[in-house]
Amino acid sequence: MIVSRALGGPRKEQSTQVSTFWVSSQHNAGARGRRPAVFRMAEWDADLDHIIPSSILPPLWAKLLVGFVSLVCFARSYDGDFVFDDSEAIVNNKDLRAETPLGDLWHHDFWGNQLSSNTSHKSYRPLTVLVFRMNCYLSGGFHPLSFHVVNILLHSGISILLVDVFSVLFGGLQYTSKGRRLNLAPRSSLLAALLFAVHPVHTECVAAVVGCADLLAALFFLLSFLGYCKALRETNKEGTQSTFWVLLSILLGAVAMLCKEQGITVLGLNAVFDILVIGKLNVLELVRKVLHKDRSLENTGVLRTEGLLFRMSLLALGGTGVLYVRWKIMGTGPPAFTEVDNPASFASSMLVRAINYNYYYSLNAWLLLCPWWLCFDWSMGCIPLIKSVGDWRVIALAALWFCLIGLICQALCSEDSHKRRILTLGLGLLIIPFLPASNLFFRVGFVVAERVLYLPSAGYCMLLTFGFGVLSKHTKKKKLIAAFVLGILFINTLRCVIRSGEWRNEEQLFRSALSVCPLNAKVHYNVGKNLADKGNQTAAIRYYREAVRLNPKYVHAMNNLGNILKERNELQEAEELLSLAVQIQPDFAAAWMNLGIVQNSLKRFQAAEQSYRTAIKHRRKYPDCYYNLGRLYADLNRHVDALNAWRNATVLKPEHSLAWNNMIILLDNTGNLAQAEAVGREALELIPNDHSLMFSLANVLGKSQKYKLCFIIVGDI
Length: 717
Fold this sequence. Notes:
Number of strands: 2
């Protein structure tokens, strides 16, 4: 009864009205091996009957359940703030402002910087930036609520879409005579989608606004895969061409890549699916034939499948073309990262690099398996380098590869064709989207990043679901397994709710990382910065000092600590810290400017001028530095130089109120009332509601005996 329900009707009816791409392999032994794969697949899915009730198997109910659960997990983040990278990607990104031409989005990186700049991370995601800009326009400004709602809805939509994707991966492509695709694995696809929807490792992508890039890439990744499946369906119909759907799939893959770089990997998954499911490739059988020089090699299913080589050629050419265009746009040069971003990639020994890369893989696997240990940033000493094979952490590498080799052997050597396909597709969905973050092809700017696991986690959920099915089949304690699965779903949901709350504001987010990565200097730096922004300088100093202790070359922590010490009039230590910062990083313009301010306070005017000039040398458009340089010249009674410096500041930043005000006051004090009035009027045209400018201009008008105008301006204050 279970099998007939899973197949949708009596066998006779299916044999005449249903076409399928699942075909049993010839080498299978025994009665079970000779049965059609659709029957074996239905039996595998039926093993989950005690976990997934039949009452929620209809597609609409299944998708409603997945969508509802995904909303429950992350709804708590809907009214969160802009946190961590959100400020740079959203609030400070000039590409999101209406005055920036839309064409600039195609020449800038994700953060609004020129791709040709040496400081650009080459993260080319123009479609994600376009979505951000549309969000700002429709919501009327930089309101975090609208951004968070979009992310939550995207994750819910992706989770729902995965019900269809998993039904294809588990159950294959089978259609009725009317062209309607059948879901032959309703229980497996629903359970895998639920596991994906509630996985806590997704919290960063959903609760952080910048995670929209991963969500959009995942959405078009899945649409590209489903489009490719449509091409495979059309290939099986007489008189129709699959080329359109293959090209559409490539186009959707390119769109996914323009949302985030991982998106292009869908073409690899499409190829694997085509070769395994449509081409019916059996690697073990192929190897046997090659070793035994079997003359029947030319009759291998892959070679017989009509159109397979053509589709593979389209995928290869399309993928190569898209990557080439992407490479040309980014300036053909790789992004520049520092040692603190990815210390293993800077190790001189290839063995040390290989060991640490594999250790990073094991940590990613652990985050999928046990997502209770989550952190917003894993760099700067959070994961110390493994420098010898005697390090006990090498055990994690051994465990990872023991599991992977076991799965790969089963995927290649199992006599059950359905088991081979499920394991291979699951491993493909796990590994292929992760490849851009693996350090294998190019250096990446992080050690571990939870956001890059969003798509690979779908493969993990697929393998986990298959594992639950195997356990259910080989044990009589089915209720215990059902309770275990439900427990995982409940615990992960609870963890998602808790973690979403931690992402609501920076204070909770940064403090949550202290227990996970106490050796991470960036965690202490961000906690200190958050405290400093709230005016708690004493506590901020403590965290900044710890950040510098953990990473003696952390110039940003030195710069911020030096600023606080300057405000507390601890000028000698401030100068030492800032001098060390510019010695470590000579092009650190902000540290040079702050050093100049400290030197000015210490009456070391010549050194201060030199520091300001050096800052401007490294950052030519630096209005604040010109303003401080003008103050130095004013203290030295070099009035013309001061006015020129402040004028440069207002040219670079027309709304620089302090520079305008200082020009008015200096001209007033030197008796140049007419020029002071002209400058004041010019400033008020640009900043009409600035009370300090109004007051300074009113003083000038009063001294010029223009009392009527003076009273008008005073009345507006």
